[in-house]
Write a structure and sequence with these properties.
Oligomer: single chain
Largest sheet: none
Strand content: under 5%
Radius of gyration: 53 Å
Structural class: mainly alpha
Shape: rod-shaped
Amino acid sequence: MRAHLARVDAVVVQAVIAGALSFSHLHDLAAAAGQGGWKAWAYPVSVDLLLVAAWRRMRQQQQAGQTAGSPRLWFLVALAASLGANVATAGLLDLDHVPASLRVVVAGWPAVAFFGGTLLAHAPRVEAPAAPAPSSMTHTDAEPHPAPATVDGPDRDALPLPSPEPEPAAEPITTPPLAPSLAVSLPPALVDRVRALAEEHRSATGQPADPDAVRARLGLPPSMTPSVAAHL
């Protein structure tokens, strides 16, 4: 924490020193160019405000993914004015005999700064793209499902029991009659027995007898099923 505060304090002190020196150089240059009194103090404020406004607008457009050509241009103009004043007051220029061209530049700076500040202030507001809102399906899935209601004590006995669903009646499985050529003739006594069993099954169930079931009750081999079916 102390290291972080020390770094912040160092940056603030450095910014104050640099700002004060640049402010003083701009004031001295404006005063030497014929702008005396309060006007000489207004020039540094104008340059620094244009520099800060252009920097902020440039960062906003860059964060929104847009080009920042116009703010960058005015940032460079204000930076050139500040650096030019610093260099001119470093002994390279005789402040007692300022060239006429420099007097023209200093006199025309308020109009340039006002034009640039107006363009930056009235530019369309740029907003960073918003994150996509979660879909309604996500909210639906995130909501907990309500727990099933429980019934305790005597109320449980008072509830009606669900009626059992009727089971579908099983369809009788019938074996299609085989061709007579495949049937083997049975003795008359066995034929009577086959018909008796078939009639007994029809009386009990109301459905025709299965030849294979009759054959199994008589103890005949599976090959005799066609013969039994031929006599039903």
